[in-house]
Amino acid sequence: MRIRTEGVSFAYDAATPALRGVDLEVDDGQSLALVGPNGSGKSTLLKILSGVLRPDGGAVLLDGTPLRALSARQIARRVGMVEQERSMGFDFTVREVVAMGRIPHRGRFARESAADRSAIDRAMDLSDVLRLGQRSIRAVSGGERQRVYLAMALAQRPDVLLLDEPTTHLDLRHQVQFMEIVRERARDGIAVLIAIHDLTLAAQASDRIALLREGQIVVAGAPDKVLTRSNVRRVFDVEALVGRHPERGTIYVLPTLVRRPQPSNAASPETDDHPGGSGICPT
């Protein structure tokens, strides 16, 4: 087992519990998506798993060792984090940013070794940012910047990879590419936890999904067991069509818009432009 939480609770203030008794585990080679509405505790949980925050109750175990027993540098060698938003105080090049991922292994002022250069180049290649190497981090687009931060995390060669809404600024092609990279890293043996809003993308890229609401895990398991109409309604307070891709067999989720009543004199459509397809899950 790689990482586990046992009864983790946390509150930013006494009146606002952010997490309440969270039990979760992710093994080597597994990817788990954390899904829930804004304010459900996803980002807070990732910060606790990364050691940025300490839980008020419960424990985080990394290969059986309490996270609180490890130094910040020991955690940084084993846990990589891609945050939703990050800013650089100086005008570094893209390669310099990616190279920061090697600091926990070599120190801040040590010279790059051959192993460091290999890890940096490999991470930039995987994240499709090699061509951006000499550009300023401030001069690249938001989507490119997010892939740079993924490369920085991969350059750490972590055992656990945490991602907080990493596809927010990516176009459709790079969303798919980004998630494919992450899934491949899980297949390489890394434990991956990703907070994400896109339920369909989560189902395609993750082995398991945990639905969070108000700081608690409502249900966790395989995508086809978790992403049901009733669970989506319970967690998000919306109706949705849940189906299975006819070729790939993966789950997709389509939230349904609530149509306002038309005026009585409005013409009714003679045809249905959105006929129901096959493979809709009724649950």
N/C terminus separation: 32 Å
Number of E-state strands: 13
Runs with pLDDT <50, length 5+? 267-278
| Mean pLDDT over the full residue set | 87
Helix-strand category: alpha/beta
Strand percentage, roughly?
25-35%
User: Considering DSSP H and I runs of 4 or more, what fraction of the residues is helical?
Assistant: 25-40%
What is the subunit arrangement here?
single chain
The rough form would be described as: globular
Main beta sheet: strand number and arrangement?
6 strands, mixed
Number of helices: 10
* Element-level helix/strand string: EEEHEEHEHHHHEHEHEEHHEEE
Q: What would a concise description of this structure say?
A:
It contains 10 helices and 13 strands. It is of the alpha/beta class and 283 residues long.
Please describe what this structure looks like.
- Strands 6-7-8-3-9-10 form a six-stranded mixed β-sheet, with helices on both faces. It has a four-stranded antiparallel β-sheet with strand order 2-1-4-5, covered by helices on one side.
- A hairpin with a 2-residue loop joins β9 and β10 (216-221).
- The protein has 283 residues and is an alpha/beta fold.
- The model is unreliable at 267-278 (pLDDT under 50).
- It has helices spanning 42-49, 72-78, 94-99, 103-106, 114-126, 142-155, 172-187, 199-205, 223-226, 229-236; strands at 3-13, 16-26, 31-35, 57-62, 65-66, 79-82, 160-164, 191-195, 208-213, 216-221, 240-244, 251-255, 280-281.
- The radius of gyration is 21 Å and the shape is globular.
